Amino acid sequence: MAYQQLKGTGVALVTPFLKNGNIDFPALEKLVSNVIRGGVDFLVALGTTAETPTLTAEEKQTVLSSIVKYGDGKVPVVCGIGGNNTEEVIHQLKSFDLRGVDAILSVAPYYNRPSQEGIYLHFKAVAAATNKPIILYNVPARTGCNILPATVLRLAADCKNIIGVKEASGNMVQCMELLQQKPDGFTVLSGDDNLVLAQMAIGMEGIISVAANCFTKEMTDMINLAIVGKFDKARKVHYKMLTGIDLLFADGNPPGVKYVLSQQGVCLNVLRLPLTTVSETTAKKLTAFLKTI
To answer: Does 120 qualify as catalytic in the annotation?
Structure first.
């Protein structure tokens, strides 16, 4: 697979659940079909948006295999495998059935807050454990640690299969420093739906999006316009969707996107604890927003 396929709009897929809490595979199939038809460039399975911490190891494998099956090779599939126990991440990479998976998205080690050297050594060990391309995932608000540009660049130089980063620090200066110094062929993707247009203006090449689950056409249209430099038209989409995107995250992620998907008839508005459905206030605001698009 050419690495350039992992650009544009990737979608961090939710995991639909039935009322009894079991995984709703028909709804997952419908979601995959909808986002591919809506123009996404690649699928991301088992990311944060998938409520992955609440899935058993068996469920994770079944969800991944199902997404590969439902995608049917139409677009690349990226699988989230990361954690704060380096040996466990390596074990998952070696034990998971990764047939049909084109790349790995691996989050920075969370909670134990390693140093930059610890982050570097963690990802160096992870990269050595697989021949799959790896996209780093920097999301300090969730992990409690920030992969600094110097560490990303060091990993890009030392690990040939670390081919990109999903950058969700929200720090535009940090993003610019990374983009300014990154090697040719190293892909920097946004992890922030509400910042991606500005980030593409400074050099990012796409996004791994939550909003693309439910606002698929709008997000792919905006990203595709930005790719070809039509920022005047892309801005119109951005400002049309900005209120809705912010509402998606008002009560955390993925409660907002699951509410919208339930309104669109894709899946039920069911989450696993500790996450809960959106508040009545947020639901009313999202319902009102949906009438504007």
So the answer is: no
